[in-house]
Amino acid sequence: MKYLKATISLFIIIAVLLNWNFLLAGGKTTSNVTDVDRDNEPEYWDRADENLLDLTADITVSAWINGETFAGAGGGWNAIVAKGDHTTGYDFHFLTEDGARFRVFQGGAGILTHNVTLTAGTWYHVAYVCDDAGGAGSASIYFNGTGTSTGTCTVNNNNTIEFRVGSTEAATSRNWDGQLADIRIWSRVLTATEITDVRVDPCNFANGASLVGQWLFDEGTGTSAADESANALTLTGVNTPAWVTSAPYTACAGAGGAPPEVPQIIWFE
Prior knowledge:
- 38% of the residues are buried.
- 15% of the residues lie in helices and 35% in strands.
- By secondary structure, it is α+β, with helices and mostly antiparallel strands.
- It has helices spanning 2-27, 35-40, 192-200; strands at 44-47, 59-67, 77-84, 89-95, 101-106, 110-115, 124-131, 137-143, 146-153, 163-165, 178-186, 211-215, 224-225, 235-238, 242-245, 265-268.
- The protein has three helices and 16 strands.
- It has two domains: 1-33; 44-268, Jelly Rolls (Sandwich), CATH 2.60.120.
């Protein structure tokens, strides 16, 4: 009987340990969570269909990105910003499925690409612009402030699809694995000089009246990300994104001699 009791106690201890490891993996707050865990339950930021984010004319998307890996269950689709499903809307992502490249679907027609190999754990600034010009305009991708690829864009962005940062509605596995920061969207075309300025001096950049949304992800806790624009388009974290202390750029002084802004505390997937 003593042997039986000791055996049962050992089983209980093992069960508790297994359950604790399961809780850790489910919470995704440790570095032990595998990429498979992440891909099966992707973490991202979301907002239900919002007309302001349809962007039926000019568009500029700016983002700071830092990848942990660049090949997931989606065949290497690493979503940055999306409000589309490849037949409507826009989808800006980094693709390693058929070569290391940034790619943009917009309006279900134009696909603009820029080939570049990224180093894991490194911050990069990327931007995409579409000058609508009556429905068939010019598009460009910028990498670290420099224009790299140009093409055409056909705007077809009026849809009822939700807006996501770090994922896309086209497939739940096509999610970003790493960190994203300071996402900005305008309903106008930024010039090449402005793209450089927003990268070099982001804290003091004059966004202008056409800023649709800006999310710093500097809350450091919780599942709510505030919008710095006048539209107050708050995002909600899905599957409890974790937070880590990191910054794509150093703190810079605020206008009028205000104290320096605190570097971002960014989530990872």
